[in-house]
Amino acid sequence: MPRTILMLPGDGIGPEIVAEAEKVLNKINDQFSLGLNFESGLVGGAAIDETDTPLPDETLEKATRADAILLGAVGGPQWDSLPMAKRPEKGLLGLRSNLDLFANLRPAILYPQLASASSLKPEVVSGLDIMIVRELTGGIYFGQPRGVRELESGERQGYNTYAYTESEIRRIGRVAFEAAQQRGKKLCSVDKANVLEVTVLWREIMNDLRREYPDVELSHMYVDNAAMQLVRAPKQFDVIVTGNMFGDILSDEAAMLTGSIGMLPSASLNSEKQGMYEPCHGSAPDIAGQGIANPLATILSAAMMLRYSLNEEKAAEAIEAAVSKVLDQGLRTADIMSEGAKKVSTREMGEAVLAAL
Amino acid sequence: MPRTILMLPGDGIGPEIVAEAEKVLNKINDQFSLGLNFESGLVGGAAIDETDTPLPDETLEKATRADAILLGAVGGPQWDSLPMAKRPEKGLLGLRSNLDLFANLRPAILYPQLASASSLKPEVVSGLDIMIVRELTGGIYFGQPRGVRELESGERQGYNTYAYTESEIRRIGRVAFEAAQQRGKKLCSVDKANVLEVTVLWREIMNDLRREYPDVELSHMYVDNAAMQLVRAPKQFDVIVTGNMFGDILSDEAAMLTGSIGMLPSASLNSEKQGMYEPCHGSAPDIAGQGIANPLATILSAAMMLRYSLNEEKAAEAIEAAVSKVLDQGLRTADIMSEGAKKVSTREMGEAVLAAL
Ligand SMILES: CC(C)[C@H](C(=O)O)[C@@H](O)C(=O)O
Ligand SMILES: CC(C)[C@H](C(=O)O)[C@@H](O)C(=O)O
């Protein structure tokens, strides 16, 4: 059964890193006879420049038909002054929402070979392995009403709506409980239930779900405390589940604990396990086109894609093993460079992974 | 001119730590002939237990009349199952809102004597001195409409509103620009202007204000990136200004970078410089009543009170010098204890500060 992967390089370093991941996927496709077909499309700033919209219909159609999507990154300063509806980010948000990719999985893992890259003390982060499950198609990102209105006083007021229904909370809760079952069996739900009504409902539904997963230990934490605990003692966490906005903040904080955000992949899944995969880092316009970006987060995103959307665990593990091997060989792109290692370009890193496969 | 200070011990360790701060204020009152009168009142869980409401009218009246308020902390597990409107936190939120204490100043300072308490590497945090200016009476904390409603489908939806008017943004912006003028002249405004309309307005107003403060260098950062940058390189920041919810999260994260949240005071001011002062840490119910809590954040909050609301800079500096002296003497409460130091109780720490005055 042939399966289709849509490649969306996007902006900034996106094209460079996706190119390396594509080579890796091609080789693994042959090695494991996966029957993958590749398509490509425009999204974000690249799409704005060619078609005047961040998510062209053609891209959305291809995305809907694809079994999985590999995205580079979107955004850059040249599009920052556009009105909100026309910005590169809307391409990303449109894909998430149209494909109903509600479950965002963001691992924060410290690679032992890169332990010294962290700004935290080694004993605080060594062996760190957290999974953040972020709700991705609801909450304040998509809540209505929203906008800027003029008040009677004549001054303007900006407003957004933070809303969740029971079923939205339940389905992301299930994903998180299931992830915890397959890991350390500890789930921490993060909310602000002492202030926000929407998160009181969130907490209630999480508590309800507990009955279906008696083997998982559920705890609750306020978001301000979670932001603190991630700095103080991050290894206390196994799986964290939270809403879209809190998840945006905490997953970036958690990623940075490792010091090597250039290594971290992510998955965004719908209930059919169709998924979009992308590195946690952004489009890094400052280094775009220089051939020095780290392609490993994108290559590891391809591995996640094989695991979650294509059910090819062995192929996923082969890629992950190859990445581990190049790190063992001491190869480093600039962002993870340290004394005594060998500095390589984006392409050299991609080639090294290919060779290690 | 006599001035009135309202003491609100609150819950958990609140009464123990406020008692020490009160001794310090009494002594400084005599030494500097400040003419301070002290009153006290109930708030939070303590008020619920006695009067069935977290903010009794009597407390609100006293607070309104007072020149400044010193608060311990509110909240504890015994009140966690109460409905939102009756919880201890509502006492705190009610004071903030009724007194219009819109400007929350939260310094994150690393005391050189306590450098080893941080979970971050010494070179990343040594000399850290950030001021977070958080808007405290608007945003999603107070936005209407809010609640839980039943949808036509029969399921419930929780919702809150994140809103800011131009004038709300402008007044907190001015406080932040002025704080930056008196410090390192760098201001970073944190928003999520790539997704939330309310923060597009926020960014616009901050940009407008720039003209009034040409000596301050203004930058903007998305909240997810700010959460990352605080971990990666916190010393890049001087003053950070942001809304109520983002400020809640980022100020706790920043405080924890120091590893000694038991040391950090905060101020909440209105436009008449009337203010409420409280430690950044919470009510710590797990250690309440044991006499081991750290009173220094509350004592330093009293110093902030003298500086900001009572215009007694010399008296404020005297307290801060005394705190620094007891740290130099190697005295440590349990939370900041390290090898070779002398472990002391809450009361011993308070007495040591008194002696150092
Ligand atoms: C680019 C932006 C809209 C996006 C988000 O806020 O979700 C990004 O920060 C992310 O986390 O994927
Ligand atoms: C207790 C709670 C309501 C409060 C807040 O969220 O503002 C606290 O976390 C704080 O930061 O002062």
From TrEMBL, chains A, B:
Q: Which GO terms describe its biological process?
A: L-leucine biosynthetic process
Q: Which domain of life is it from?
A: Bacteria
Boundaries of every Isopropylmalate dehydrogenase-like domain copy: 4-353
Q: What Gene3D superfamilies does the database record attribute to this sequence? A: Isopropylmalate Dehydrogenase
Summary of subunit composition and partner proteins: Homodimer.
Name the family: Belongs to the isocitrate and isopropylmalate dehydrogenases family. LeuB type 1 subfamily.
By what name is this protein known? Answer: 3-isopropylmalate dehydrogenase
- What is the source species? Marinobacter manganoxydans MnI7-9
Q: Which gene encodes it?
A: leuB
